[in-house]
Amino acid sequence: MANHNHFSAVLIVLLLQCIQLSCVVGVSPPTQTGGRWELLLNNTGVVAMHMALTRHNTVVVFDQTSAGPSQYKLRRRFGGERCTSAHADNIDPDCYAHSVEYDISRNEVRALRLSSDAWCSSGSFLSNGTLLQTGGHGSGSRRIRKFRPCKDRHCDWSESHSLLSNDRWYASNLILPEHDRVIVVGGRRAFTYEFVPKMGKEKAFDLPLLHRTFDDREGGNNLYPFLHLSSDGNLFIFANRDSVLFNYRRNKVVKTFPRIPGRGSRNYPSTGSSVILPLDHADRFRKVEVMVCGGSATGAYRAAGRGRFVKGLQSCGRMVITGNTNKWKMEQMPEPRLMHDMLILPTGNILIINGAKTGSAGWGNARNASIRPFLYNPKNKPNRRFSVLKSTKIARMYHSSAIVLTDGRVLVAGGNPHRNYTFEHVHYPTELRLQAYHPDYTEPKYDGQRPTNVSIHYAQGDHGIKYGKQFTVRFKLERRMSGVLEFNAYAPPFTTHSISMNQRLLKLKNRNTEIDSNGQWISTVVEAPPSPNVAPAGFYLLTVVNGGIPSVSRWIRFINS
Fold first, then answer.
1. Nearest in space to 486 (alpha carbons), one of 454, 440, 459
2. Which of 175, 371, 490, 506 has the fewest C-beta atoms lying within 10 Å of its C-beta?
3. What is the distance in angstroms between the CA of the first residue and the CA of the last residue of the chain?
4. Residue 539, beta-bridge partner list
5. CATH says 450-559 is which class?
């Protein structure tokens, strides 16, 4: 009996050690210190509720205008009237910026003018690099805004005279294969979709999926639906727990997919996240697979309103949406997670970052910040896909966001689970610090493997590379690793509320490679995607990946003939 008790005690100790190391099935303990964190700015001035990387290597950041004064006070209102130190001006939201542009190379921000309230809005990049931004709250709920980035730091927001057909608060956006046409789906009490720009007298169209998945008692649970463009030109729409393949040209559901297994919900305010996994030239981009991770448990939204914070969902589901066999394959993350961002890294791996472990989205509705990012390798065996990375010391809760930068770092900002900017006597104060997460591949020890001096060459006079055409990538490489060099094209997203709208990565075909006499300079002929169904026209980041080590990305533009 004594030996049995001794064995039990040893077993308990080992289990506790395993728990401390997050020894979950599929998690590799040695990678738990992967990467490092860097504090870039102590104060961005504005909460990064929304964030997007522009083709001029700046980042557009904006919050709601209805949150009262931000922490970026203006010398003058945008109308020209001076902002003084008087109490009336100190509490006047018009004397504060609600949007900024972050210059990556200078590590500084400048104020932008946001006229209408973009609270919980959506966005897509057009083919010329302009950010088309739609919806919001109150006066902004039907607004269409544009930000055309520039090099001289004089560009700013503009608003269209055209309006959306419906109010769009908590809606989602996706750029379509048609030239510069965007679809806007859903929103609070908006069970429809519409297009920008409109064709003739076109209005909004009813979408039965949104009626069917709406949960009024739980705040909706189908807001900010997940949208992904399939390579066959149809639209994957996921709301709450259900999903369809939708032909938006004919306003017709092509296919209804199985419900994702398990209880709980995945969309706002349950707020899981989703990505379309990298598309590959090896199957002619025909296999399209989506992934949905995390969210809130059934009843979590109401429970949070009563001060009880229910453990979030730990499951992820993967499903191939093309072909005739469409079935969710479920996996478990190392920990429960909600309100997180899912980003496709230049290597094709998925980074899961930010968020919380309990509760739901909404004002003060979550607890237990998720401070450890997860890395997911889609190509590993099912029980070896997740690894746990180095933790941050800054909680990133509701209204935080993250994006991938050209050098492979991840910019992390925001967090404000309060109606106003609040810094004292709360569990999670308004967060204005700006961080960069450096994945392990950015470390100097890999510099010998890293492709450098990348340049892109195509026909003179063209404004970009036409679909299916070839172009040349030239780069320097000190040490080539075993395996094939990869040429990955990434569409930078518009990120808000755990959704990276329009994010996709393409693994492009390379036809032949030439190496110069000293064996360091390499020229490779690469083939552009075959159609806008695979890659809607616009600016992408092209990365050369050598044995899992990416180059600094270069901007490339795919255009219609």
1. 454
2. 371
3. 80
4. 557
5. mainly beta
In this prediction, residues 172-176 reach a mean pLDDT of 98
Query: 269 with 360: CB under 8 angstroms?
Result: yes
Query: Which tokens sit at 389?
Result: 């990375």
φ, ψ (nearest 5 deg) of residue 399 = 65, 35
Instruction: Please name the residue that has the structure tokens 């991938």.
Output: 404
Coil/strand/helix, residue 348: coil
Buried b (16+ CB within 10 A) or exposed e, 9-39: eeeeeeeeeeeeebebebbbeeebebbebee
Find out whether the peptide bond into 530 is cis, omega within 30 degrees of 0: no
pLDDT digits (tens, 9 = 90+) for 373-431: 999 999 999 999 999 999 999 999 999 999 999 999 999 999 999 999 999 999 999 99
pTM tops 0.85, yes or no: yes
Q: Can you tell me which residue has the tokens 């997740």?
A: 386
Contact between 123 and 129 under an 8 Å Cβ cutoff? The reply is no
Nearest CA-CA partner of 434 in 409, 412, 401, 402 = 412
With contact defined as beta carbons under 8 Å apart, do 553 and 453 qualify?
no
Q: Tell me the two tokens of residue 49.
A: 């509720």
CATH fold of the domain at 36-63+98-442: Methylamine Dehydrogenase; Chain H (2.130.10)
Confidence at 480, pLDDT banded by 50, 70, 90: confident
**Of 239, 111, 250, 234, the residue nearest 185 (C-alpha):** 239
Query: What is the per-residue pLDDT across 9-64, written as a single tens digit (0 to 9) for each?
Result: 434 333 344 333 333 344 544 445 589 999 999 999 999 999 999 999 999 999 99
| pLDDT tens for each residue of 276-305 | 999 999 999 999 999 999 999 999 999 999
Token pair of 37 as six digits: 């964190």
Which ranges in the chain are annotated with CATH 2.60.40.10?
Answer: 450-559
Query: What token pair was written down for 503?
Result: 């994010």
Residue 554's H or E segment, with its range, is strand 554-559
Which tokens belong to 206? Answer: 């009813």
* In the predicted structure, residue 483 carries a pLDDT above the cut 80: no
pLDDT at 179 (0 to 100): 83
Strand partners, 514: 523
Beta bridge partners of 205: 193
- Amino acid 484: pLDDT: 79
Residue ranges, CATH 2.130.10.80, the chain? 36-63+98-442
pLDDT score of 441 more than 80: yes
For 62, 136, 148, 162, the CA distances from 158, given in Å and listed in that order, are 14, 15, 9, 12
**Among 336, 338, 311, 315, which residue's Cα sits nearest to residue 398?**
338
Retrieve residue 58's tokens.
């700046």
Contact 39, 435 (CB under 8 A): yes
Residue written as token pair 């930068």: 405
Chain position carrying tokens 């209005």: 203
Span 368-374, average pLDDT: 98
Residue 252 has pLDDT above 90, yes or no: yes
In this prediction, residue 79 carries a pLDDT of: 84
User: Considering only CA atoms, which of 197, 214, 204, 222 is closest in space to residue 166?
Assistant: 204
